[in-house]
Amino acid sequence: MSLFNDTDRLQWVHAFIAGIPYARASNMHVTEASQNHAILAMPAHGNWTGDSERQLTHPGVLTVLADTACGVAVGTALDVMEPFATLDLRMDYLRPAVADRELVCHAECHRLSRSVAFVRGEIRQPGQDEVLATVHATFMRATASARRDPSAAPNPARLSPDAQPQPVALPPTVTPALKPGVSPYVDYLNVHQSARQDDDAPLFRLPFKPELIGNPVLPALHGGVLAGFAETAMVLHLVSTMGLSDGTPPRGVDFSIDYLRSARPVDTFAQATTIRQGSRVALVQVTVWQEDQAKPVATARGHFLLPRDQA
């Protein structure tokens, strides 16, 4: 499909967003689209709250919106549509987002080479002049878009609302990662945590559900959802290993993720490592995988500001 003018681009953008199950589930919508530019908005929702006590939006919600908006910006930069996929994405969190306001992401594809697209963007909330977060992402052009070999992939029928994920071998004593209501976004993702044994880092599980799909053709999980899960795993890792369950959770300073392969519509796992812990900031790295821990689908790292009472 060729994109000749802004009207054509806007039509493509609306069709693109409508075809993403996660975008539909979160009510993302396009407010503007022109060559190399896109503006996406996401309405406030109780499920997007990451910190109920302070009424702050989970940073993973910003990352999902940013990843989607950057992808749309790449599409508007192309003269002829072709498949593309996120290679890596970096978020810098300048200030927290309040939970009761819409989020808006402005994304710009500022460089389009033969193989890679480079995108940058900003996230704001209506009524505030300050930027909440900045995003930088790169996308690989002309990636595979065909559905996987049915003999090597889960049955696409699992994408129906009544579908159940295949059983996955789990460590003993797996429980919800947090008490219900502490972080509605963690509740929405239904993240579970295995009990720690000795000095082992906790293992986190993201159960598959159809609304987490970002590419319905392959099908594959939304890259932003993987990022949100990775961020969640890093925060919960610090909460668990530092004994912060009764205090203020660490707050993200920055976050970057590298996508190594598309994530299938199955349960996903993550395990984090604290690379460095200072008096005020901790650096955490996480590996995200599915059937085989030796074949991760993504790796991520981030800096987190620790509660002052832990200094």
Number of contiguous helices? 5
Strand content: 25-35%
**What is the total tally of β strands?**
17
Largest sheet: 13 strands, antiparallel
Order of helices and strands: HHEEEEHEEEEEHEEEEHEEEE
Order of neighbouring strands in the sheet with most strands:
1-2-6-7-8-5-14-17-16-15-11-10-9
Intertermini distance = 56 Å
What is the 3D shape? globular
Quickly give the structural class.
alpha+beta
- Radius of gyration of CA atoms, rounded to a whole number: 19 Å
Q: What proportion of the residues is helical, as a percent range?
A: 10-25%
What is the typical, i.e. mean, pLDDT?
Answer: 86
Unreliable runs: 148-168
How would you describe what is shown here?
By secondary structure, the protein is an alpha+beta fold. The chain is 20% helix and 34% strand. The chain has helices at 6-18, 21-25, 59-77, 184-189, 223-242; strands spanning 29-34, 37-42, 49-51, 56-57, 84-93, 103-112, 116-124, 133-141, 174-176, 192-194, 203-206, 213-215, 220-221, 251-259, 268-277, 281-289, 298-305. A 13-stranded antiparallel beta sheet has the order 1-2-6-7-8-5-14-17-16-15-11-10-9. Strands 3-4 form a two-stranded antiparallel ribbon. The chain is built from five helices and 17 strands.
